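User: Working on a comparison across species. This one is Acyl-CoA synthetase short-chain family member 3, mitochondrial from Schizaphis graminum. Can you predict its structure so I can line it up against the others?
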Amino acid sequence: MEPSPLTPGIDILWSDALSTAKHHPCVPVEANHPLYILYTSGTTDKPKGIVRPTGGHIATLCWTMSCIYGMTEDDVWWTASDMGWVVGHSYICYGPLCAGITSVMYEGKPDRTPDPGQYFRVIQDHKVNGLFTAPTALRVIKREDPVLTFGSKYNTKSLRTLFVAGEHCDHETLTWAGKALNVPVLNHWWQTETGHSITASCLGFGHNLKPPMFSAGMPFPGYDVRILKEDGSPCQLLELGRIVVKLPLPPGVMSCLYKAPERFINTYFNNFIGYYDTMDAGYTDENGYIYVTARDDDVINVAGHRLSTSALEDVILSHPDVGDAAVFGVPETTKGEIPLCLYIKNKNCSKKEEDINNEIVQNVRDLIGPIASFHLCAPVQGLPRTRSGKTARKSLSNLASGKKVIISGTIEDPSVYMGIKQVLQKLGYAKNAPDPEIEK
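Assistant: Here's the predicted structure for Acyl-CoA synthetase short-chain family member 3, mitochondrial from Schizaphis graminum:
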């Protein structure tokens, strides 16, 4: 492989820069001194500048490497994420390095770099022991390499555990990844605002390596997690509600929003007095496991029945010809709203679109029931996802409803919206919707 030519005055070799670098002593700061400002992905609203305190964040991250992820100083850790997002900040940079653990930094997508076997190659080449990635990345690999034509070329026996977070992980993808890598796949739940897990299966505490399907683990120390109804009363076991955390919050959580103190209070603390509002929906079981179903905005109200988009997506993604999917609510005269699904077909799928659509509708009817009123689905070439892997469902719902859509700067491929608009119009939606515009 030939090295790329360097442009004088612009390009600098890392080795040259390192050889002339000077040591700079550490600067003592107060524990609550701002460490960084990180903007959220903005799937439901305009991005918010999260201000992170230094002391509590570093201490907590260092501890989580052993108590959640089971890593030691002799291990190799790989967070396959973007340094520009909270997962990259917390677990490519600060967490593993402060704990003295080797951290792999990888630049590139999970496929077409040059093929979908690159995650497996990195695990083999660097003898990775723990991997943390987003369900979106796993779905891409599964869609492009379902029978591991590329992945099976590599030895991944060094890997002990795979952790996923960032969005709901459907059963089909979770099961496929576990078999492909021959390791436990553990889902855990956290937010840009918290900087580390709210719930998890903690290896350092001896938690079950096979937690209940779809659960995100148990509350992490410091979080008093509750499930509340809209009126603030507690939900029953297995009853869907708003996930909140009783105050005070643990060390390391955001200290404020950058230059937005009123928005900070109104967004997170005014909806449920005495609680931090996660704005996620979910439920808990009799053993204390937490199940995060979706952002509360992603719960569809069909004739008074609240349906989680993730529950519908789980069924749809179980279809052998579906590689990815997004479900969102669209207006309906008698029922208020009904679900609509846009999906991406697996590579080399030859089945007719009509047949796939009919099978998806029947699967939802069989497994969710007629209550879902599900009959709208269509394939698309791409879905709007943020660079952190989240689906911008609210923008899809707004587009289908004919509302103006401003594409957040965090959307990885804004071009997908035009193709989606055309598909929605064929289904009878987005008829008078203006073309989506990129945020200025």
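For your comparison, note: The chain has a mean pLDDT of 93.

User: Helpful, thanks.
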